[in-house]
């Protein structure tokens, strides 16, 4: 019997307990031993809950019990998760987490600590919910130089962009709908401003380059400026607008950014709709690959956490190496990236062509009083210069 | 330095050598040691080739060299690959292969042998070319009961179905085009009759259930009966026709089949076009997931083989467990599966409704002299009975 403790009995934590119960037979068969939840740490009581007697309020109970082999963290936030993780690992307990904030900030250190103490620190659920992406990056795509990772990594914003596209609605209306459905939080800032996706691409980029990438260094634009008019233009161009979190190899470093992009129908991410997430990877020998699935939600996320528990249970005496050193990677300026740009402006065509040269104009049904166009491919420095020269820009969305 | 031997210097074998050369620096960094190709086994000479001096014609040279730690097989076919694999593993050498025929037939035995000798037998490239699917099934989707695996697993037929759909061409014309482009072989039987996809779904189903699934037991229909007229109807229904290799959990067993399906636009496999492959997985807690990428081709397939080499090199002293026992799984009758069916017939509507009850009729542009309809959901037994009653059936394609 392998004894575990679950920290936090909220959505993910209770999902982990549920998955272990529902799939007990198949999991026991895979592990070759039973996974037993000994403790659940939560500030609250859960009277009447079947797990009521497992609830403890003091982490020390878990930390001091040598029978607990795996600590599963599903509380969220950097503290006290980080303190608990460190204590667990330093005392020879394995650690699994769904916590992107913790891993984006402390991943390199926890991985190093786990190696030193011959245990494992796993975090599959921290990016892309149920989608297997961390382990595939670490153990499958290892023959390649990864030249691009681009993900739809936030289910809330993808749901909103899908609904805006399907219904022609404005941002504020779709946000209200998402909040009513429970897809967006009362304070939706972390999702709609791209902060959530930013932490996730920081984690993926760190794994791709093997070094620490600080999420604070990643240029991040959200979806708050996307309007129903932009969606009309996207349709006229036969494209969909998606919030992408991307990193690209450039020389010895990487460019990373989070921003809305217009995607063409042949792009593998074009058709990723609603709350689904997907990660597109381009390797120098593999070519294009994509991993698609439920990026959030109680059971899909818990499925990834439990897969980590299974993987740990199969490697109790051994550290599975993960390359993510603490040395910080200095990201290249994101403006080095070359894109086409979709631009809306009140300026006239002569001014547009003076600033941007030859462009492709686009018209959307019922939109008047402005000009809209797609530029030639240009880097961000050239774009900024042309935009400053033009002035009067109503909107600018990168085109991929 | 970790020394390897490559068996077969054809497309995949030379791709493996190329990937190891092109990405030498990043691979050495990941492994923490250099991978060195000591021998290449081939019947031919390669005068002028940079690897000319590595070529040997006798496997015994490789087998008897204790410095060779990993044998990489890229010859294809069950023999002599199986004999070489067995000898290699029994003498403590690790084994990696891209050979689906070998693994579908001998996978369970080679995995057991590898475990006994504390080495690894890896075969990521045997299904889906460069797409990571074997390792994700084995180490990522382990919290779930996998209820369905459906793959577009053959690039040749997917290219042909895509071109038939884009151009409205007939099967024979598209086959000739695929042969000219090198996507189809001079004898295309294994691809177009579904035999290739059948071996691949046998491998995936074996991994999902942990037991031997014999490919000979899997009901297999190819694409040879699909016509330009069927494509017209698919378009009228807003669907695409794809050759799917699928298995579904039913009770304590699985149903498996290879057959063309009409997919609706919201299905994750709908948009998988040209020579791309993808594997759709439905887990009982994960929900839907999909893995997409290059299913064939020299470098993508070699990327997967080299990823196996890297994984082995990181676990030289240890067997990574794979659950695939030799006991044969008795598949359930594929006719237990419930589907809608698209049917074309020369019978009249009264006869159709007498045999099938209420159906949805469909008309395609320019097609006359027949009736076409989509049935309600029914199992294969009920379908066969209704078809026998109707007679005069021109075409039948499952609808998903």
Automatic annotation (TrEMBL), chains A, B:
Binding site for NADPH: 100
UniProt entry tagged with the keyword Transcription regulation: no
Catalytic activity of the protein: L-homoserine + NADP(+) = L-aspartate 4-semialdehyde + NADPH + H(+)
Keyword Ribonucleoprotein part of the UniProt annotation: no
The enzyme's E.C. designation: 1.1.1.3
Keywords tagged on the record: Amino-acid biosynthesis, Methionine biosynthesis, NADP, Oxidoreductase, Sodium, Threonine biosynthesis
Active site positions: 200
Positions bound to L-homoserine: 185
Stretches assigned to coiled coil: none
Annotated positions binding NADP(+): 7-14
Pathway: Amino-acid biosynthesis; L-methionine biosynthesis via de novo pathway; L-homoserine from L-aspartate: step 3/3; Amino-acid biosynthesis; L-threonine biosynthesis; L-threonine from L-aspartate: step 3/5
One Gene Ontology term from the biological process aspect of the record: methionine biosynthetic process
Pfam families registered for this protein in UniProt: Homoserine_dh (PF00742), NAD_binding_3 (PF03447)
An example molecular function term from Gene Ontology annotations: homoserine dehydrogenase activity
InterPro entries associated with the record: Asp/hSer_DH_NAD-bd, HDH, HDH_cat, HDH_CS, NAD(P)-bd_dom_sf
NCBIfam families named in the record: PRK06349.1
Family: Belongs to the homoserine dehydrogenase family.
Record protein name field: Homoserine dehydrogenase
Organism lineage: Bacteria, Bacillati, Bacillota, Clostridia, Eubacteriales
